[in-house]
């Protein structure tokens, strides 16, 4: 009887051990949950990532460009405040991310206008049709001349914003890490002589990895 | 008394239909209740007025110099007002209680069948506010939630593009691309997809690389139609980048169509597209760059999307086969004088892309290893379970017949463990995710020419095998501005598909068994969908 009980216990132990062993053997799979987005210093080499321009980037870049422009003597400390055009007409998107460039140029123009306090005068070139329409009404006598009188022509620009958004993408197919370096260049161009009177650049580099089920 | 099987079946079917109707009516009633408060504004106003009057009268009665008659009049009025106020408060309280009770009951009934939704009335309201031809796709989007959102945005976008609802198409593809570009790190559903006992298809769909690339392709075409060549180019380049996902693929970054369109977008900007055209030509012998003065692009799509299926013992290997039903293989764009009907131009076309080739040459996926592991687990536990069940049963039976109760018990124990292994094997889900974007084409051909101005209609002559292909098809989209025009034609309509991609939609039982967190996410998704309104239809009748 004792021998049978011992045998029974032994069988149970073997059965359990076998179960656990088999379960463990069947379970062994390495899962890769991915890597959350990390912001990187573009000056340092890092992992590869593929995230683009976000709203905080737009804020940072326009704030930085604005401060830089205001410290430029030709733009912000001239004897006669220069007339500048800041819009997206010549601001080119050459990157792999679709973007509404007006988000960048509008924020830049608005903050610059507020901060410059008259040291720079902004020409609303995109409103020129609207202005011309009103000028015509005044000259045709349909409306009066307003309170500021009339001028010979609309304001011309002394300087205009140009620039480029460019990016370089890379991917490590083995680890799934993706990386995007984005470079945004801003330049103010003299509209008479064609010289670049101010340049600014904003760079960002981001890296991330999707979960392995998406690779 | 015997009851025939037929009669039982009839009763069962009638019961199902009755309860389905009942649930649909329940959801309409719930919607009606939610739109109307339990107590009307007038009833609330009446209660407030009576309450104010009551307070006034009480205050008035406290005055010291009141005459006996005045006091009596006030007391009488107070009594009347008090009685009326009590009556109104009681009625309002009852109405509110009845309302809550009915709402709770309806919600309980609806949850039994639909979980956290969407309920039929919610779906009806959402879908009714969309353009009629797009309603089936919007219905799928609303019902299937986040899990199939990218898939449904893609199908909707393509159908909308063909039907002329360009704003809807742009919105849909933008939302799709937002999700494709989102990084799913530490995502619960992705984690679940890797577990032994959940299928890969529980994850939120993003699509295989060829599907993601095609989302960018269509968005790029829409930007071309709007003369936004910069963003069009961004899309074509980003789409080509999607083709670099697979390490195992022999043909990475060979999406010649997107390289070609990148060059075209540059040409429309007045820049040189030579480098991009050359890159496309590396992969497509005989493909030549457009002439510098060409400003019309003819894009013709042929055939039907690659079909995904699961192969292997447990369908754990994702494979593709071409759809032979719609086998258009060549397209000849034609420009026809609208007045005379004479064909004025037939620009030379080139089949620049084979979507089935892109799908089937991806090489292995990292998740294939996980699915293989799941399949091995399923096979191993099945084998172990079967063996242990057999051994245990034999041991138990021989113990029973031999009068050896200890052996019988041991045998039963082993058989039980074997049963557990068997159950684990049954529960394991190694099937590959075969959800697919089913209104994609098989081939894409391109041609270019110089614009001849207005007064022309555009289409394509089609040829190939397959009974379901028309000989001539009108262009679905002709758009552009001063710089360039795009003419987009399809041999097979993007609407020649069901409301939902085959096999993609979960049934209601599966949907209500999803984790509560997932259902809540879908509730939030539907709330967001209700608030998002694509722009007015452009160019659609």
| Overall pLDDT metric of chain B | 87
* Class by SSE composition of chain B: alpha+beta
Class per helix and strand makeup of chain A: alpha/beta
Q: Low-confidence stretches of chain A at least 5 residues in length (pLDDT < 50)? A: 1-7, 20-32, 42-50
Succession of helices and strands of chain A: HEHHEEHEHEEE
Number of separate strands of chain A: 7
CATH architecture of chain A: 3-Layer(aba) Sandwich
Shape of chain B: flat
CATH topology of chain A: Rossmann fold
Which pair of chains has the greatest number of interface residues, and how are they split between the two chains? A-B, 49 and 55 residues
What radius of gyration of chain A results from the CA coordinates? Answer: 32 Å
The overall pLDDT of chain A, averaged over residues, is 82
What is the end-to-end distance of chain B? 63 Å
Provide a concise account of the structure shown.
With 215 residues, chain A is an alpha/beta fold. Helix content of chain A is 34%, strand content 27%. In chain A, strands 1, 2, 3, 4, 5, 6 and 7 form a seven-stranded mixed beta sheet that branches.
Which key terms come to mind for this protein?
heterodimer; A: about 220 residues; alpha/beta; Rossmann fold; 5 helices; 7 strands; about 35% helix; disordered N terminus; B: about 550 residues; alpha+beta; 5-stranded mixed beta sheet; 4-stranded antiparallel beta sheet; 17 helices; about 55% helix; disordered C terminus
Structure description:
The complex is a heterodimer of chains A (215) and B (541). Chain A is α/β, with parallel strands linked by helices. Chain A has one domain: Rossmann fold, CATH 3.40.50. Helices cover 34% and strands 27% of the residues of chain A. Chain A has five helices and seven strands, in the order H-E-H-H-E-E-H-E-H-E-E-E. Chain A has helices at 2-27, 55-70, 73-76, 102-116, 128-139; strands at 35-40, 83-85, 91-94, 121-122, 159-172, 177-190, 196-209. In chain A, strands 1, 2, 3, 4, 5, 6 and 7 form a seven-stranded mixed β-sheet that branches. The longest helix of chain A has 26 residues, at 2-27. Chain A is elongated, with a radius of gyration of 32 Å. By secondary structure, chain B is an alpha+beta fold. Chain B has a domain at 17-108. Helix content of chain B is 55%, strand content 12%. In chain B, the strands form three sheets. A five-stranded mixed β-sheet of chain B has the order 6-7-1-11-10. In chain B, strands 5-4-8-9 form a four-stranded antiparallel β-sheet, with no helix packed on it. Chain B has a two-stranded antiparallel ribbon with strand order 2-3. The two termini of chain B are 63 Å apart. At the A-B interface, helix 1, strand 1 and strand 3 of A face helix 7, helix 8, helix 10, helix 14 and helix 15 of B.
């Amino acid at each position: 009887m004792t021998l049978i009980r011992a045998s029974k216990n032994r069988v149970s132990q073997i059965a359990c051990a076998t179960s656990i062993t088999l379960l463990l053997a069947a379970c062994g799979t390495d899962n890769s949950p991915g890597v959350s987005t990390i912001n990187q210093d573009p000056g340092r080499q890092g992992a590869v990532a593929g995230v683009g321009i976000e709203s905080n980037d737009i804020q940072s870049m326009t704030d930085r460009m604005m401060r830089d422009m205001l410290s430029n003597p030709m733009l912000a400390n001239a004897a006669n405040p220069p007339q500048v055009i800041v819009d997206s007409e010549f601001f080119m998107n050459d990157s792999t991310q679709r973007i509404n460039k007006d988000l960048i140029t509008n924020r830049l123009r608005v903050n610059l206008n507020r901060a410059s306090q008259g040291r720079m005068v902004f020409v609303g070139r995109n409103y020129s049709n609207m202005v011309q329409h009103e000028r015509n009404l005044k000259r045709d006598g349909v409306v009066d001349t307003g309170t500021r009188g009339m001028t010979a022509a609309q304001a011309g620009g002394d300087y205009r914003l140009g620039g480029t958004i460019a990016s370089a993408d890379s991917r490590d197919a083995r680890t799934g890490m993706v990386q995007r370096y984005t470079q945004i260049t801003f330049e103010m161009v003299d509209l008479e002589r064609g010289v670049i009177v101010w340049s600014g650049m904003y760079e960002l580099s981001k890296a991330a990895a999707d979960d392995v089920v998406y690779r | 008394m015997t009851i025939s099987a037929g009669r039982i079946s009839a009763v069962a079917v009638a019961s199902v239909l009755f309860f389905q109707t009942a649930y649909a009516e329940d959801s309409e009633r719930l919607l009606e209740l939610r739109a109307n408060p339990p107590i009307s504004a007038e009833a609330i106003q009446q209660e407030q007025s009576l309450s104010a009057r009551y307070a006034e009268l009480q205050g008035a009665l406290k005055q010291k110099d009141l005459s006996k008659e005045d006091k009596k009049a006030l007391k009488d009025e107070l009594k009347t007002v008090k009685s009326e106020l009590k009556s109104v408060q009681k009625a309002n309280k009852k109405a509110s209680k009845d309302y809550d009770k009915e709402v709770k009951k309806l919600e309980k009934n609806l949850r039994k069948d639909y979980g956290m939704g969407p309920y039929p009335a919610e779906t009806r309201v959402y879908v009714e506010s969309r353009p009629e031809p797009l309603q089936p796709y919007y219905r799928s989007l609303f019902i299937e939630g986040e899990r199939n959102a990218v898939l449904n945005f893609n199908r909707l976008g393509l159908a909308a593009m063909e039907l002329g609802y360009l704003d809807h198409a742009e919105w849909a593809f933008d939302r799709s691309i937002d999700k494709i570009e989102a990084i799913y790190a530490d995502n619960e559903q992705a984690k679940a997809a890797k577990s032994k006992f959940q299928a890969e298809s529980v994850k939120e769909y993003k699509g295989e690389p060829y599907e993601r690339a095609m989302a960018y392709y269509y968005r790029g075409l829409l930007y071309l139609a709007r003369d936004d060549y910069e963003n069009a180019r961004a899309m074509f380049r980003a789409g080509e980048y999607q083709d670099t996902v697979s390490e195992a693929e022999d043909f990475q970054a060979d999406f010649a169509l997107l390289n070609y369109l990148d060059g075209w977008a540059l040409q429309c900007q007045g820049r040189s597209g030579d480098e991009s055209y050359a890159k496309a030509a590396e992969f497509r012998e005989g493909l030549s760059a457009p002439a510098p003065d060409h400003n019309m692009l003819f894009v013709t799509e042929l055939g039907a999307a690659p079909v995904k299926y699961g192969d292997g013992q447990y369908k754990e290997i994702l494979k593709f086969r071409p759809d032979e039903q719609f086998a258009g293989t060549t397209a000849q764009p034609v420009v026809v004088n609208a007045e005379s009907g004479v064909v004025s131009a037939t620009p030379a076309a080139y089949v620049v892309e084979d979507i089935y080739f892109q799908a089937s040459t991806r090489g292995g996926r990292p998740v294939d290893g996980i699915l293989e592991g799941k399949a091995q687990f399923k096979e191993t536990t099945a084998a172990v379970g079967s063996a242990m069940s057999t051994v245990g049963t034999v041991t138990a039976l021989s113990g029973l017949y031999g009068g050896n109760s200890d052996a019988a018990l041991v045998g039963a124990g082993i058989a039980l463990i074997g049963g557990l292994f068997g159950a684990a094997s049954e529960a394991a889900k190694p099937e590959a995710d075969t959800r697919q974007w089913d209104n994609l084409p098989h081939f894409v051909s391109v041609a270019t020419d110089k614009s001849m101005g207005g007064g022309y209609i555009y289409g394509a002559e089609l040829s190939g095998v397959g009974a379901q292909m028309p000989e001539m098809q009108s262009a679905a989209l002709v758009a552009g501005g001063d710089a360039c025009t795009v003419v987009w034609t399809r041999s097979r309509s993007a609407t020649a598909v069901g409301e939902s991609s085959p096999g993609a939609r979960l049934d209601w039982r599966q949907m209500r068994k999803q984790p509560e967190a997932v259902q809540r996410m879908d509730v939030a998704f539907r709330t967001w969908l209700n608030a998002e309104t694509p722009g007015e239809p452009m160019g659609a009748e």
